[in-house]
Design goal:
Blueprint: H1 6-35, E1 40-44, E2 47-51, H2 53-59
Antiparallel strand pairs: 1-2
Helix pairs in contact: 1-2
Length: 78
């Protein structure tokens, strides 16, 4: 495979941006399902499992109702 192609080099350079965009889109889709009260399915250890909204919220730093968790001020913030 030819790797000195300018098009391929541009695509490789864009990879971090593409991965970050995919991660943001995935996060928003999961949170949208959780806000609607829907479980999602995923594979864990080769088995399909259902993840409830509370677990989705916890994954992204929200409480079980989708509200941001309170932050504790650090000594540096004073």
């Amino acid at each position: 495979m030819q790797t000195d192609s300018p098009i391929l080099q541009r695509m490789i350079a864009m990879l971090p941006e593409v991965e970050a965009s995919h991660a943001r889109s995935n996060r928003e889709a999961l949170l949208e399902h959780a806000r609607m009260g829907r479980d999602i399915s995923t594979l864990r250890d080769g088995k399909v499992v259902w993840i409830p909204p509370a677990e989705i919220f916890a994954r992204y730093g929200f409480d079980e109702f989708g509200r941001p968790l309170p932050t504790v001020p650090t000594a540096e913030a004073k």
